[in-house]
Amino acid sequence: MIGRLNHVAIAVPDLQAAVAQYETTLGASVGAPQDEPDHGVTVVFIELPNTKIELLYPLGENSPIQGFLDKNPSGGIHHMCFEVEDIIAARDRLKGEGARVLGTGEPKIGAHGKPVLFLHPKDFNGTLIELEQV
Amino acid sequence: MIGRLNHVAIAVPDLQAAVAQYETTLGASVGAPQDEPDHGVTVVFIELPNTKIELLYPLGENSPIQGFLDKNPSGGIHHMCFEVEDIIAARDRLKGEGARVLGTGEPKIGAHGKPVLFLHPKDFNGTLIELEQV
């Protein structure tokens, strides 16, 4: 069912420093910061030959990643995102297998403009998994 | 400098349960467990179309991931691995940029039989980065 690893998302406490680490120290191809006010984050994409790293930095009040940074002040890997062809079919299969879908269970439009769902970390070895329909 | 994302490694407290989550619940292609006594882990590779997930489970006494599981009893993402063409050149560039290489600074032969180095998580947003020469 799951397809490509679309991205690994890393919450960072200092976006400018994180950009410099990936661009200068690791020599990767780093995009421009994009504010996503509807999602409470500023994102920077790092393009690797086969996938992306997504740096996440809080934007505005009530950013969904502020709590993560409060618990992990140095930052850390926040989630990984797998591509699926049909997010409703994926959700129904997951629920049938007993996995918990976060929120209402209805897909939302994610930061990339595509339908996404998140799965409960306790069902997947403490990792937060995003599914994105591509 | 960094190339492909070779794998994302996840430390898991119950290997059989983790295999079932990826194989049955997420419908991914999951390999057979491989004991790596020299590295103190049993690994299972999950093949995605563009990269791999590596499940890590402690093997024997003094497994390097036991401490991680003690701190994260549900498991969690342990590290991510980027490919480099020349690990000595990569190390020297990183040290020149002030990044800390773990251990002696000399590459070791990793679980895939190739030279690897690990970078200090505090220099990279709380994420442990492995570099592998491919």
From TrEMBL, chains A, B:
It catalyses: (R)-methylmalonyl-CoA = (S)-methylmalonyl-CoA. Keywords: Cobalt, Isomerase, Metal-binding. GO terms for biological process: L-methylmalonyl-CoA metabolic process. InterPro entries: Glyas_Bleomycin-R_OHBP_Dase, MeMalonyl-CoA_epimerase, MMCE/EMCE_epimerase, VOC_core. It is an enzyme of class 5 (isomerase). Its EC number is 5.1.99.1. GO terms for molecular function: metal ion binding; methylmalonyl-CoA epimerase activity. Gene3D superfamilies: 2,3-Dihydroxybiphenyl 1,2-Dioxygenase, domain 1 (3.10.180.10). Residues 4-134 form the VOC domain. Belongs to the methylmalonyl-CoA epimerase family. This is methylmalonyl-CoA epimerase. It comes from Paracoccus tegillarcae. The gene is mce.
